[in-house]
Amino acid sequence: MKNENVADLEQIELSIEHAKQLIDFGDALARLEKNPDYVKIIQDDFFKNNIIRLVKLKAAPQCQDELNQGFIAKQIDAVGQFEQYLTGIRIQANQALVALEKDKEEREVLLQEN
Fold this sequence. Notes:
By secondary structure, the chain is mainly alpha-helical. The protein contains three helices and no strands. It has one domain. Helix 2 (about 35-60) runs antiparallel to helix 3. The longest helix has about 50 residues, at about 65-114. The chain is elongated, with a radius of gyration of 23 Å.
């Protein structure tokens, strides 16, 4: 096997392993999101009820001072950041599925050439 092909094969193997890790993470999140406790605490309470509470607090007359408004805004931002984190896991897992198939095909081509 040519040195170039060996290096390519090693890179593909690393890429395959990385894709499998991302897919595993996505699968773990999918299982977690089906868990009734996750649905109850994170999906229903944190992402729904908590946001409603924060929006109401933001408009409450007793929370109009700068300190309270800043605290509420940070909490709303934190919810958004957490949702973006979860969305990132889903996106990376989906992209990894596609990349994994391409890498497997490329690996087979390299192996057949030698």
